[in-house]
Amino acid sequence: MSEPAEAKMDKGETTTETEELTEKTTEPTGISYVIYQGMGAAAVGVGALACSVTLGYTSPALPSMRADPDFFITEEQESWVGAVMPACALVGSVITGPLVDSLGRRTTLLHLTWPFALSWMMIATSSSVTGVVLGRMMGGLCVGMQAVAGSVFLPEIVEVELRNIMTAIPAVFGNLGLMLSFASGQYLTWRGLAWLGALMTLPVVLFLLPLPETPSHLTRTGRKESSLIALRQLRRTTQHAEKEQQEITNSCSSSDSKADISVWETVQSPNLWPVSVGIGLMVAQQTTGITAVVFFASSILDSGEDGAGGSAASVLLGVVNFFSTFVGMIAMAKFKRRQMLSLSTTVIVASLFILSLFFWAKDAGGSYSDIAKTLHLVPVVGLLAYIIGFSLGWGPIPWVFLGEGMPSRVRGKAVAMVVAVNWASAFLITKTFGWCVSSLGAHTTFLGYAVATAVSATLLRRVMPETFLQSAAQMNRLYQEAAKIKQQ
């Protein structure tokens, strides 16, 4: 169409093409607008499932590799199979910031499907550790890109009233992927698990194809007509769509339409506050030790079971992780984010302290060691409590904050920066976990995670803005007002 839709509406002119488009996309029938938003959440959710299968792969796969007579792997190589994924996810998150701002959020997610599937095929057909590591590297890139693109896409698709439910869906899918990875490891070899991972990447396309690009991105790239059409597809009435379009337009200054926003501008006031909090949340999330626990769950549980039952217990871990997400969903819809972080911190610190005490007794020898043998289920119970606590707060909230708390103007680059820090932290935690356990002892390692979690939570509660039921426009105003007060 040669004229913007706004101009045509002002003149009272409508073409047949516009009328047909309006009939198809501007007035969703029944609850179709909810279905479209649900499809967006499902697309990001399936992507999260694929990512969590990638994260959880090493726990069942490494024992399978050791047992494979046609495959040789050393302990050092095992650590690299685990650690190379978050290292490459860091790179993937960095390069995705400019991509989601230029190509678009939906387009970026669509293009991720094929390299993600290819990474799993490389692992499944590999005859050496080198091939596995290369596949994990490519998979890590895709995980990092998915984390950024999905975190930007979802909050820009769903409306505020549905955000608490919709933004929790990726967490459910993510934990389902972890459970699937652990459970499948009981029946599939490491190659079979890789083929399963390849299949998990494909459904994203089916959910994304019927959806438009996000209205926020369309507006910032000068396509307000397309943005309004997208909103009419995604919102319950034309009035809701037009009101939100006006809010998006108002939140965009004339300079917002430029795709080239510098990294320096991203960390300047008023953006510095939310970006700093986002970085703090991601570092704190990793210092709970979650990535190492997921990667080496079977090994941790084996150490408590004296070498028996660790794999089976890790399946239970995955199941509890999955169902605890639903508890987290309900809590996230009813309680403020800082309240949930406090509860999550309490449970995590307590469970890590129990694990630390158990492994101290186990390594101490004498009567303490006998007590530890009697209480050999403590690692299982401790890790189950740990997973529940993580699902209540430290798991979802850092990611939810990226959607709810990041300034819309710099969201692409800001999310990429924050996620990169997350993966850098994950790499360091994963790579050093084995060294910490062998050099310092499991008890000191878990105690260190407990202390780090408690300190991080105390500091972040003081500076984290509350995002519960706040729109993007409201958060933008909060940051701008805070910046003005600081300048006075």
TrEMBL record:
Keywords: Cell membrane, Membrane, Sugar transport, Transmembrane, Transmembrane helix, Transport. PROSITE patterns: MFS (PS50850), SUGAR_TRANSPORT_1 (PS00216), SUGAR_TRANSPORT_2 (PS00217). It is a multi-pass membrane protein. One of its GO terms (cellular component) is plasma membrane. Residues 1-25 are annotated as: Disordered. It is found in: Cell membrane. The chain crosses the membrane at residues 34-59, 79-100, 112-132, 193-211, 279-301, 313-333, 340-360, 380-402, 414-434, 440-460. Residues 1-14 have a biased composition (Basic and acidic residues). It comes from the Eukaryota. GO terms for molecular function: transmembrane transporter activity. Residues 40-468 form the Major facilitator superfamily (MFS) profile domain. InterPro entries: MFS_dom, MFS_sugar_transport-like, MFS_Trehalose_Transporter, Sugar_transporter_CS. This is Facilitated trehalose transporter Tret1-like 5. It comes from Homarus americanus (American lobster). The gene is Tret1-L5.
